[in-house]
Amino acid sequence: MAEVLVLVEHADGEPKKVTGELLTLARELGEPAAVFTGAPGTYAKAKAYLAEYGAAKVYVVESDDVAEYVGAPIAEVLAKLVGDAAPTAVLVAATADSREIAARTAAKTDSGLIWDAVAVTGDLVATQGVFGGSTIVQSKVTKGTPVIVVRPNSTAPVAAPGSPAEVTVDIAISDVAKSAKIVDRVAEAKSGRPDLTEAQVVVSGGRGLGAAEHFALVEKLADTLGAAVGASRAATDAGWYPHQNQVGQTGKTVSPQLYIAVGISGAIQHRAGMQTSKTIVAINKDPEAPIFEFADYGLVGDLFNVVPQLTDEIEKRKG
Amino acid sequence: MNIVVTVKQVPDTWAEKKLDAADKTVDRVSVDNVMNEMDEYGVEEALKIKEAHGGEVTVVTMGPAKAVETIRKALSMGADKAVHLTDDALHGSDALQTSAALAKVIASLSPDLVITASEASDARGGVMGALLAERLGLPQLTQARKVTVDPGAGKVAIERLADNGYSLVEASLPAVVGVVEKINQPRYPSFKGIMAAKKKPLTTLSAGDAGLDAGSVGLAAAASTVLDANPAPPRQSGTIVKDEGDGGTKIAGFLAAQKLI
Ligand SMILES: Cc1cc2nc3c(=O)[nH]c(=O)nc-3n(C[C@H](O)[C@H](O)[C@H](O)COP(=O)(O)OP(=O)(O)OC[C@H]3O[C@@H](n4cnc5c(N)ncnc54)[C@H](O)[C@@H]3O)c2cc1C
Ligand SMILES: Cc1cc2nc3c(=O)[nH]c(=O)nc-3n(C[C@H](O)[C@H](O)[C@H](O)COP(=O)(O)OP(=O)(O)OC[C@H]3O[C@@H](n4cnc5c(N)ncnc54)[C@H](O)[C@@H]3O)c2cc1C
Known about the structure:
The complex is a heterodimer. Helices cover 28% and strands 28% of the residues of chain A.
């Protein structure tokens, strides 16, 4: 069986849930081969997870070169493996970094690229939701090795424990790929909550909150639900919440089981990032707010009354 | 500084976007078209860098004849000149072909800086900055919420958005920068700017003029194909209720009924 390359998505070696999803998908398309790229010493943290989710092989590149420069070095690694291993396809997660790496890999290998797939069948036909999910497209790569960018939360990760062979990739990254150097990393986002794009529940706050400190209401509701916290652009522009938490066209795209919008009007650019959520609940005091046009459950009311009551009620039901 | 900024004409943000029933490409005929909103930020950043360091801003677009409206807008904001790559043969190009075509045009302009935006609102690939960097062999400074250029030292630095904050990324010029909408507040074209735009130089190129091989462009030669496209099943209309002092409890009841709590 031919290999299907899966680019491992991780933070300092700790794999993200989407890696398990991609390995699960890869098992249906061929023999899953994980590609781990990271700073020296990081692979050890990923090893057990990759085995757990059924990687048959792991290609490992641990070097400063792949960790200290934007995108291009990892694309070189993938392009080399496409050449050496002749895989059926390359799967990467639809994160800002990885979709860029995928694009460069496709360009290097003269292959077709498909982004934002939510499903891929055995014959490599991908399903994409386009125009914010209002149109469903089936597409297929017709040239080279399909490079497919898969949206997080598209499939449930299913464990399939094994003991993958480890292959250290012998590669010298070219100078031209080492031209955009990461000289510092600065943490800004609030941590301790699930990743926005991976969370099963997302609670987002908008301009209706009125002030940064009122985000505490949203955070408290989120914590009772084990949810990630999102924000509209109005809220991030006002400096009430970090930009990294913005949901929408120019923020993150999320598709959780449950999305709760608090004091958000539902502008088209916001909608573009959350419209494929399974269930949408909106709390807004304006009955004419556009968000009510696509919410599954809309509550017309003052968030300052509704949200604390909802939080208490969920706590109560949890017992 | 010789700055090139890419702009794309897209269906109006608020228009109901559709694919053409026959060839499954974006329907750009039955809707109003505008400059991709994000590209306004790219143009603004190019103008700010020019204002700070001197030089010239050239707008580059690939698109149908009427994409000239988007070029006009960029010129009326203050860009100096434009190149419009337009040819029926280019219709239906995928991102790889588009990047190859744009790279060819951009390379002929020998820029110090290429500015793109992070995403076009119709196709939402979010890939063009990376692809142009790849094709041109230049540093990729995408996802930038802040750009600092030092033409004297031949350096450029950005704050690149990361999952939990940002990264400081440095490179030598020339480079490709991709901006996000946090970077600035785009100006509106002034009346004077709109009048001046009409006289600014605009070069129109066919695929052949740009040196593109006819067999490599357009829908037929694309590296991926759309097999089928259908409207998503409409969302069932939801329940809207008014808070009567029990709004929170009502939502909790709904969530419990849906087994979400
Ligand atoms: C290029 C571009 C990119 C963009 N990208 C994004 C993006 O990625 N994400 C995004 O979100 N937006 C984006 N936008 C902005 C978008 O157009 C809207 O401006 C934004 O989403 C509005 O945020 P909001 O809903 O919080 O604010 P508003 O539209 O002001 O809505 C606030 C809502 O809160 C309600 N409210 C007020 N007080 C209360 C109360 N006490 N109780 C209950 N409800 C209350 C009001 O009725 C109102 O409906 C983008 C715009 C552009 C031009
Ligand atoms: C719904 C839909 C889905 C698609 N899916 C795919 C796919 O999966 N794979 C694929 O290869 N192609 C796909 N395409 C085709 C692809 O969108 C076009 O080739 C497009 O020109 C490049 O992608 P983008 O618009 O998403 O660019 P993005 O990468 O989102 O654009 C970023 C920036 O690049 C610049 N830019 C983009 N296009 C142009 C242009 N024509 N002229 C000047 N500047 C430009 C703009 O500054 C823009 O802000 C799709 C098209 C549609 C409509």
